[in-house]
Amino acid sequence: MISGGGSLRRRIRSTLGALSLVGVVGIGLLLWLSVSAHTRSLEATHNFVEDERASDRITRAVLQQLAVAVAFPTAAHDEEREAFLASGTVVHNELRRYLFGTLTPEERIRLAEVREAHQRFEVQAIQAADLFARDVEEQADGALLVMARLAGEFLEGMEGFFAIRIAALDELQRNQEALQATLLRSALLLAAGLVLLSMLAAWELNRRVARPLTALAEVTERIATGSLDARVPTRGDHEFRVMAERFNRMAEGLQQREAQLTRALADVEEAQGELIAVETLGAVGRMSAGFAHEINNPLTSVLGYAELLDERLASDPPPDPEEARALLAPILKEASRARSLVESLVQVARHPEGPISAVSLRETIDAVVGLREYAFQQAGLELVVEGVPGVSVRVDSQLLHAVFLHLINNALDAMRPQGRGSLTISGTFDRAEGWVELEFIDTGPGLSQPDRIFEPFHTTKPVGEGTGLGLSLVHQFVTAAGGEIHASDAEAGGARFLIRLPPADTEAVRDVAEVRMDPSDATESATAPSVTAEPGPATVEDGPAGATVQPDPPPGDTSDPFTVLVVEDEPHLLKLQARLLARIGLRVVEASSVAEARRALAKEAVDLIVSDVRMPGESGIDLYLEVRNAHPELVERFLFVTGDATVPELDAIVQAQGEIVIRKPFRMEEYLTRIRKKIAS
């Protein structure tokens, strides 16, 4: 074998060449010896058979000659002589064939003696025939005796010749057997040599090929498990040194790319957090107008009832405890409601980098639903929560808020153009499977491409109304939390989103009734009893919406009181405005919706209309447009009370009518001043 750091190809080629040469030469030699031995064996067998046949022919011919010679005394005619000579020719030809063959010197000498003995036998037989022909019987008998003796000598000579031939054949047989044994030993030696050379080649291949490949596989496995600093030793043959150097360069490149990828992933995570924040803030921005209205409603109640309470506390006599509690109850309830709204908004709008903790699904759903309920009501839609389990999941609380907010906003955007529909949120907890499932099913137009809905930048909204990243981020967050999210069309139409999340550990799972508590139910309902508003003679009885509040007329005033229609869907705000208007001697007709206001206008003679803008079903804008057509005399005596930051339709009316809006939250005196101004106009 070639040692050192040469070429593995040359080394393998040399090894295989040596093995091939030894194998070919050894096998060729064995084949040649085997064929040669086989040929000799066949030749010896053939010669033996031919010798046997020749011996038989010679013996028969000599016996025929003797038989003819024995008949000479009685029939020494030419026919017998010719038969005698013909048999002698057979013997002569057989002996001559041997002489022209391959013979040993001993065989050739012995054959020459046999031939001479046969010739003497024939000569003596011819002489005996001639003597019998001349009737010299005594001499002829003597010649026959000599002929018989010469025939015996001939046959003995032939037997000796064939004995030499048989001895030679026996020697050849022994040589063939020895050769066969030699061939067998040579084959065994060749096989042993080939096995030894193969083992040597295998050892060399293991040392020069298998070991480097094993080292390469081990380093590859370490790199695959994350140890990118692993390197292959650069030793051995040229090919493996080159491969190791290139592999190490590749590993260094992977290590550098991993560092780059780590930095890029950090940048992506940062960008993802910013995108989530942007999507969340975008959702918050889209609901800001509704939120402003919803937060201003409780603030207006708080401010109005606080001023009423302040006045009563400053009056003489001061209010009794029951009256004070009646004025304080709406303040507490509406303040709690405002705080809940603000907390929900803060939770949703906060930057999504909170800690991973056990988060209640129901509380999260309640917080997000509390923010969007009013928007659904204003759009004429229903937002229904059914059976969300009291189970906690380990997630980032802010991200979970963002997921639910985005799904609810998507349903709102999809159904808003229809002006009707519902979003149903339901959930189950399968302890056996270890999943918490939440379903968001709306009755909107459905999903045109459910299989692409989670692709980044894929959106079905018009240009400028969606980035196409929201659902992609939702999918990414749910997946990162160990859950699943699937989108499909609902059986009855609309979109269906199914979220599966693993629950937190058993300590974080709270077994509570699977019904949703409205946040407003946590505060004890307070309904103000009959209150005598001081100063002033008016008395306001809290009753059902649509009731007529009859103030006591001022002393000496016998005219009919001024009638005001107040349209407000918030009960506390409706009662607050009724109290304030009654204090200045106005008759108040209450309506909690546009439909009730329409019925009141059909039955009552109204001098002034004060209406909220956003209400479930029809809005205050719809009422204004209807009044402008059916009661144009009331257009100049129409006031809007709203907490919305911006309403495009209302802006157009303000530009045409001037000061027609009272902004929530308002001060009591500000509200009454605007009412007096409208009455006086």
What is this entry, summarized?
This protein has 681 residues and is α/β, with parallel strands linked by helices. It has 15 helices and 15 strands.
Estimated radius of gyration: 64 Å
- Return the average pLDDT rounded to an integer: 75
What percentage of amino acids are in beta strands?
A: 5-15%
SSE arrangement, N to C: HHHHHHHEHEEHEEHEEEEEEHEHEHEHEH
Stretches where pLDDT falls below 50 for ≥5 residues? 463-468, 506-546, 552-558
Biggest beta sheet summary = 6 strands, mixed
Strand numbers in spatial order across the main sheet = 10-12-11-13-14-15
The separation of the N and C termini measures: 119 Å
How many H/I helical runs?
15
What structural class do you assign from the helix and strand content? alpha/beta
Strand count: 15
Percent in helix: 55-70%
Estimate the global geometry from the Cα principal axes: rod-shaped
Q: Would you give an account of this structure?
A:
The chain contains 15 helices and 15 strands. With 681 residues, the protein is an alpha/beta fold. The strands form 4 sheets. The protein has a 6-stranded mixed β-sheet with strand order 10-12-11-13-14-15, with helices on both faces. Strands 2-4-5-7-6 form a 5-stranded mixed β-sheet. A hairpin with a 4-residue loop joins β4 and β5. α2 runs antiparallel to α3 and α3 packs antiparallel against α4. About 8% of the residues have low confidence.
